[in-house]
Amino acid sequence: MNLPLRISERRLLLILLDLFALNGALLISLSFRKEYQLSWELLWQNPQWFLLLSVLWLFIAFAFDAYDLRIAGKFVTTFKAVLKAGLITSTIYLLIPYIPPALPTSRFLLFLFLILILGFLLAGRLFYLRILSHPFFNRQSIIIGTGVRAHTIAQAISEHTNGQFHVVGFVQELGKEKLNNPVSQVLGNSQDLINLIRKYQINTVILAGEQNADGEMLQILTDALELGIDIIPMPILYEELTGRVPVEHIGESWQVAMPIDHPLTKPFNRFIKRISDIILASLGCLCLAPFFPFISLAIYLESPGPIFYAQERVGLGGKRFRAYKFRSMVPDAEKDRPVWAKKDDPRVTRIGRLLRKTHVDEFPQFWNILKGEMSAVGPRPERPEFVEELAKEIPFYRIRHAVKPGMAGWGLVKQGYGASKEDALVKLQYDLYYIKHQSLWFDLIILLKTILDTLTLRGRA
Q1: In a designed cystine with 259, which of 86, 137, 270, 436 is the match (CB 3.0 to 4.6 A)?
Q2: Whole-prediction pTM
């Protein structure tokens, strides 16, 4: 899922349909117990049963991208996401003692509960596909601009909205040449905007021009606002659609990329973040302890040498620290100079490859979290040599040091580990989005997605 925080109209409809399906399935299943009757009063009398099921579903559904509009817009992909999330949610719910009702008093009730949940969820998704596919619900849109920014946002709309926006065409900026435009369907220039809005029944105008609006353009946009038109700047829409901040397309709108007054500038948010970090790191150390001797022995037997590997990284405020990892490469793998890690890197040992795929090689960084050098969730820390190089070539790169680096991160679960400058640019876009929208909910979603990557061996090779 691209946007764990933004609840659009379509995503809100999906959430409501799913919650209605889940709670309806539980209500009907309980009605087969002699002590209960099929009545909505049961929901008000025992709200904890239904609340727990709803919260469990939301966490797991977001982790499985069930609310990614691209996935929700196709039957095959939404079926897979709902099936996985529904089975895991119902299984965990039935295994939690005390709070939920003792539902599975028979195999019939257990089977009925699972079938009702999956059946109702899929029925809701089919209803969504049937209704939202109607052209009435599409947002007729015009993009102001014909340059690279206009082409980029048009491509993002095509890839991420699944029909939510229908781009009718593009409008040429005043004073811009029409030659060599990377877009087609140029309907006219900005002076024609109001007539084009009426002609094509436009309800959304996307500002993707290469220059700031002057007095004449502002007057045209004011006229459009008077008609009830929604006007969206390209960087903001791109961020909402992709979960990334388009740093290379910001232009003079630098405030869009700068996470001014971001959540972790608030003392209370920092306190909650620190407490959750300590709890998670402590639990991680406890879980790691029983396996530590076996991991250490496996590393040493295949490649004699140190068990841990300490590497200098850049953290909060540009301060350097040593990040700890289980050694996954042969000793002295970088005795000459630092190089980007790449897929199927020959320096990685067989045990190291398994540790990387499961992210277990990063587990010693629980100690960095307890020391306060890292957080459980945040931008992945980069090496000083690469930071200096990337900061010169990528705009706003140093902003990722506005928060503590993390073991898990939005850029990591979406992009993976970087192996080039191009990867670093994409990861920065995700990192800036995380910094701007950080919350406990967002952190939990990222952690759940990281756990899924660990269980399915989707870490780096």
Answers
A1: 436
A2: 0.83
- Is 250 within the bounds of a domain? no
Number of domains in the chain: 3
Nearest to 138 by CA among 204, 229, 54, 43: 204
Predicted local distance difference test score (pLDDT) of residue 336? 60
Tell me: do 183 and 289 sit in the same domain. no
From CA 200, how far away is CA 169, in angstroms rounded? 10
Verify that 110 and 163 share a domain, yes or no: no
Contacts of residue 194, defined as CB under 8 A and 6 or more positions apart, other chains included, come to: 220, 223, 224, 227
| Structural domain span for residue 390 | 263-455
Is the pLDDT at 284 greater than 60, yes or no? yes
Question: What would the pLDDT profile of 313-351 be if each residue is shown by its tens digit?
Answer: 999 999 999 999 999 888 776 666 666 666 667 788 889
Hunting for tokens 């700031």 — which residue is that? Answer: 212
What confidence category does residue 4 fall into, taking pLDDT thresholds of 50, 70 and 90? very low
- Count of CB atoms situated within 10 Å of the CB of 406: 27
pLDDT for residue 251 is more than 70 = no
Q: Is 253 domain-assigned?
A: no
- Parallel, antiparallel, or unpaired: how do β-strands 320-326 and 308-314 relate? antiparallel
347-369 average pLDDT score:
90
Last residue of a domain, one of 95, 117, 132: 132
Is the same domain home to 34 and 65? Answer: yes
Strands (E), 198-352: 204-207, 230-233, 308-314, 320-326
* CA pair distance 117, 121, nearest whole angstrom: 6
> Positive or negative, the Cα torsion across 409, 410, 415, 419?
negative
Does some domain include residue 460? Answer: no
> What are the Cα distances from residue 80, in Å, to 64, 85, 180, 387, 459?
9, 9, 43, 40, 22
Q: Do residue 272 and residue 200 come from a single domain?
A: no
